[in-house]
Design goal:
The complex is a heterodimer of chains A (about 260) and B (about 300). Helix content of chain A is about 40%, strand content about 25%. With about 260 residues, chain A is of the alpha/beta class. Mean pLDDT of chain A is about 90; it is low at about 1-15. By secondary structure, chain B is mainly α. Chain B folds into two domains: about 1-55; about 85-300, MetI-like (MetI-like fold, Orthogonal Bundle). Classes of the chains: A alpha/beta (about 260), B mainly alpha (about 300).
């Protein structure tokens, strides 16, 4: 990563090869308590899918992990370093955690290449030539090399979202957060984005994915967490969560999804 | 609009006429609407002219406001020869210098104020407060008062090294007044950039300042170019106010000519100069606004 090796002692303290540890996370917006005690441990190279109804707290959880939202209680540990402490450098931490948003949030006044190189150039202080090289290699890998000079408004939604993923990857994050990245896409464009995520999972990227694509979650996840009213109500391997959910709320949720035709059983 | 733009009507008119009118193609109907606009404009202006010319005091007003000879003299045409030194255009260069220098300063100061007002956190509260008070006070004060107080007050202090030239205070006063307005324009632009843009920038590890500098401001400034130009139209006109602290610019020059001839025609000449200079800028602003609207419509497809 940024060349900083974790101190040896923290591995024993917070578990071996652990990418992310969340303990007792609480978050409220005014009087509305959105997260009500989240505990979650994510191993390196693990792919976790967060499922649950709208408003269950999936997006807020991801935004809290990236410190885009200040948390009210609990702690978050990334690669052994507590990031919710007082004296942490937010900017340094965010460089190690990539996030991709539902609405892409590309910078409309910059070309695709500039979108991708902005982080490396400004946050990592990389030389422009080096940042360009890295960006072009990533764009090539995801079939976007011909779009490098285009502006975002010239791209389809699927292409924009792939660029947004590439932009996050250009920072070489150790953890990638995906916040319903296909929800704003036309149905025919969903597959190209999901394929990118599959490829990343195959490459060993640690990912936390909030999604409504249940079929995709079943295929790709090592573990599925069902969020309900700000808590992880149930978690386990996808076969079990989708095949034999223990909680009544989970069963209800999945039944509705099946009825909506979003999951084949 | 139709009085100035005898040119092609915009798309909307053409489409409207095409669908409702009897014409077979777009070309004749565009011509037809231009013709209608021209005729109605001429009729309107003709009616106004008829009323004015038949007014009881027309002869006197014509002599004291629209004297052809004095009009030519005001522009420096004396006995058939052009004398630059006696033309009010020479003094208009002072106005041009005033607003050119002030505009550059205003763009900088206004942006600084807007950025100060968007600073986060309790520690920086004094900066936010000062910028807010500044914008409030200078928008509340009539410009002429600022010009008077600065132009007579500061040199009156007699502090060594402080400039005494009225031109200096004219630039300072105009900059102070207009920076308050322009900072509000910038701020509206900054607020108009969706918060998700900042979130995206910060998620890449950019600092608050880097996000502002590379992501928020470039988008904000682009959006506020038309209202900024609008403020500069106001500034160009307000340069005449500094004549009151002793800057000899076009308005003061025309006053001097008026006093020498007992005729108001020099003011009409000055009015014409401002019209000629300002209207192209106003057209440019309108053009930019229309372009932005088209772009917004295109990107919302």
């Amino acid at each position: 990563m940024s060349g900083v090796q974790p101190p040896a002692d923290r591995l024993s303290e917070d578990g071996k090869g652990q990418a992310l540890l969340i303990e007792g996370l609480h978050k409220s917006f005014g009087k509305l308590e959105v997260l009500r005690g989240i505990d979650l441990a994510v191993a390196e190279h693990e792919v976790i899918c967060l499922i649950g109804a709208s408003g269950s707290g999936k997006s807020t959880l991801l935004r809290c992990i990236n410190l885009l939202e200040p948390i009210d209680a609990g702690r978050i540990v990334v690669e052994g370093q507590e990031i919710t402490g007082r004296k942490v450098d937010l900017n340094r931490i965010r460089r190690r955690i990539g996030i991709v948003f539902q609405s892409f949030n590309l910078f409309p006044h910059m070309s695709v290449l500039d979108n991708v190189t902005l982080g490396p150039r400004k946050a990592l202080k990389m030389r422009p030539a080096e940042a360009d090289e890295r960006a072009r290699a990533l764009l090539l890998r995801f079939g976007l090399e011909e779009k490098a000079a285009d502006f975002p408004d010239r791209l389809s939604g699927g292409q924009q979202q792939r660029v947004a993923i590439v932009r996050a990857l250009a920072m070489e994050p150790s953890l990638l957060l995906l916040d319903e990245v296909t929800s704003a896409l036309d149905p025919e464009l969903v597959a190209e984005v999901l394929n990118v995520i599959r490829e990343l999972a195959g490459g060993g990227m640690t990912m936390l994915i909030a999604t409504h694509e249940m079929g995709f979650a079943r295929d790709i996840a090592d573990r599925v967490c069902f969020l309900d009213a700000g808590r992880i109500l149930e978690e386990g391997p996808p076969e079990r969560i989708f095949g034999a959910p223990r909680e009544e709320r989970t069963r209800q949720f999945l039944r509705r999804i099946v009825e909506a035709g979003r999951l084949q059983v | 609009m139709s009085a100035l733009g005898g040119g092609p009507p915009d798309q909307g008119d053409t489409v409207h006429l095409r669908s409702g009118g009897p014409s077979r193609s777009g070309e004749p109907s565009a011509l037809r609407s231009t013709a209608i606009a021209a005729v109605s404009t001429l009729a309107f202006l003709g009616a106004i002219a008829w009323i004015v010319v038949n007014a009881p005091g027309w002869a006197a007003v014509q002599e004291s406001f629209l004297n052809g000879k004095i009009f030519a003299q005001t522009f420096g045409f004396i006995d058939g020869a052009f004398v630059w030194e006696r033309s009010i255009l020479r003094y208009f260069l002072v106005n041009v210098a005033l607003f050119t220098i002030a505009e550059v300063l205003i763009l900088g100061v206004g942006l600084l104020l807007a950025v100060l007002r968007s600073l986060p956190g309790p520690v920086l509260f004094p900066f936010r407060a000062m910028a807010t008070i500044y914008a409030d006070v200078f928008r509340a004060l009539p410009g002429i008062l600022v010009i008077y107080i600065l132009g007579f007050g500061i040199p009156g202090l007699g502090i060594a090294g402080v400039p005494v030239e009225p031109f200096f205070y004219a630039v300072v006063a105009l900059t102070l007044i207009y920076s308050a307005y322009v900072s509000e324009v910038y701020r509206a632009g900054i607020d108009s950039v969706h918060p998700s843009q900042e979130a995206a920038a910060r998620s890449l590890g950019l600092s608050k300042f880097q996000a502002l500098r590379h992501v928020i401001l470039p988008q904000a400034v682009r959006r506020v170019v038309p209202p900024l130009l609008n403020d500069f139209i106001g500034l160009q006109k307000d340069t005449v106010l500094v004549s009151y602290i002793g800057v000899v610019e076009i308005f003061r020059a025309s006053q001097i000519k008026q006093a020498a001839t007992f005729n108001f025609t020099p003011y009409m000449a000055t009015a014409l100069v401002f019209i000629v200079v300002t209207i192209p800028l106003a057209r440019l602003v309108d053009g930019l606004v229309a372009r932005d609207r088209r772009r917004a419509a295109a990107s919302a497809r």
